[in-house]
Specification:
2 copies of one chain form a homodimer.
Chain A: E1 2-6, H1 13-25, E2 30-35, E3 39-42, E4 49-52, E5 54-55, E6 64-67, H2 73-76, H3 80-90, E7 95-99, H4 102-108, E8 116-117, E9 133-134, E10 139-142, E11 145-148, H5 153-166, H6 168-177, H7 196-206
Parallel strand pairs in A: 1-2, 1-6, 2-5, 6-7, 7-11, 8-9
Antiparallel strand pairs in A: 3-4, 10-11
Helix pairs in contact in A: 1-5, 5-6
Chain lengths: 207, 207
C-alpha cells in the first residue's frame, strides 16, 4: 500500500508520526510525506520540522491518505492546493483517513456530508459545519472514510486500518513491534474522565 | 525546562516524537532536536526525516535529555560524539531519559551501572552488557535516570516525567490536550499478552 501523509504549516507532529510509525512498520506499506512542495514543513509548536519527500503533484493517487490536524488546520481550510489534492486523491484511495482536526480538511473537500465523523474533543461540534454528524468515538469508520479523535488516536486508527487492510495478524505484529501496551499514568485522556479543572487547563494549552 | 532530543542515523521516529509532543505541549518546556550537526536526520524506515535545530555543541547543558532508540542504535554505540554528549549532558540534567533501545546509549555512556533499566522487550537482556539490571516494566525510574520500554512507551514516560517535574495537574492537562485515551484494537502490545506467532511476526518486522 502506498500511503501519503500531507504536511501543511502548523500540523501536530504526533498526528502524523503516530500513524506513520504504525504503517511504515507494516510489511508492504510505503509511507511518503507530501506537501505543496517537497521540503521542510514545521509543526504547530514551531520546534519540529519534518521533510516532505514529494509534492502533491508527485503523488496524486495514493492508496491511503492520512490527514493530520494541528493548530494550523483552520488556516489550511483555505489552502486550495491541499484541499484539492485531498479531494482528487480520495477518488483513488482505498482509505481516506484523518487524525484530530484533520477531519475538517476532509470536510472542506466535501467528503463528510451526511457521514458520522470525529475530531479533537474540544472542537467536535465544528464538524457540523461540513455536513457531518459529530460522534465522540476514538475511531469512526464510514465506508472508506476513517476519522480519529485527537492527536494520539492516530495510533489506534492506524492499527484498526492495518487490521482491515492486512488482517489482524499483521496489526497485532506491528502493535507488538512498537510495544503499544499503553499505561497512561492518569485517567485524564478524555473529557469524560478528566476533571473540569483539567479541561480548562487543556483548553488553555491548545489556545 | 530545556529538553534536548538527540537524533542519530536510523532512530525510530515515534521514540522521539511521542515524548516531544507531550513535553512541547507543556507550559514552560522548550524542546530542541540536536545532532552531531544541525540539519536533517533520517529514521530507521528511511522515509521520515526530522531536522536537528542545533548541534550537540550548541546545547551541552539541557535540563532533560530524551534519547530515542531505533534500528541504528547498536551502530550508534560507537558514535563518540553522541555518547560523549550524553555523558556530559547527564552531569547537568535534572532528568536523563531514554525510550526503547535508547537505554543502550545511556549504558554505553556508563550511566546504568548497578541500576534497574528497561528497553524494547526483544532486546531486554542486552542491558546486562552495560551493568544494568533489566526489568520488564513500562517506565523505570532510578533517581534522575528514567528508561522506558519499546517505541510507544515514550508517551507514558513523558507524562510520568511531567507529573514529577511539574505536578499531576500539568501532566493531566497535557494528556487531555493530546486526547491520550488509548484504545488499542488488540491486546497484543506486550510479549506477555501476544501469541507466540505474533511474537515471531513482530521479530521479523524488527530484523
Amino acid at each position: 500500500m502506498r500511503v501519503a501523509i500531507p504536511l501543511y504549516p502548523r500540523y501536530t507532529a504526533l498526528d502524523a508520526v503516530g500513524p506513520y510509525t504504525v504503517l511504515a512498520t507494516a510489511p508492504g506499506c510505503t509511507v511518503t510525506f507530501v506537501a505543496a512542495e517537497a521540503g521542510p514543513v514545521t509543526d504547530d509548536q514551531g520546534t519540529l520540522t519534518l521533510t516532505a519527500a514529494a509534492s502533491y503533484a508527485d503523488l496524486p493517487d495514493p492508496d491511503v491518505i492520512v490527514v493530520p490536524g494541528g493548530l494550523g488546520t483552520l488556516d489550511a481550510l483555505s489552502d486550495e492546493a491541499l484541499v484539492g489534492w485531498i479531494r482528487e486523491a480520495h477518488r483513488h484511495t482505498r482509505w481516506t483517513t484523518s487524525v484530530c482536526t484533520g477531519s475538517f480538511l476532509l470536510g472542506e473537500a466535501g467528503l463528510l456530508r451526511g457521514l458520522k465523523a470525529t475530531t479533537h474533543w474540544a472542537l467536535l461540534e465544528l464538524l457540523e459545519r461540513f455536513g457531518a454528524e459529530p460522534v465522540s468515538e476514538r475511531v469512526v469508520i464510514e465506508g472508506k472514510i476513517v476519522t480519529a479523535a485527537g492527536v494520539s488516536s492516530g495510533i489506534d486508527m492506524a492499527l484498526t486500518l492495518l487490521a482491515a487492510a492486512g488482517g489482524a495478524e499483521t496489526a497485532q505484529a506491528v502493535q507488538l513491534a512498537i510495544e503499544y501496551d499503553p499505561r497512561p499514568p492518569f485517567n485524564a485522556g478524555s473529557p469524560g474522565t478528566a476533571s473540569e479543572e483539567t479541561r480548562q487547563r487543556a483548553l488553555n494549552l491548545l489556545s
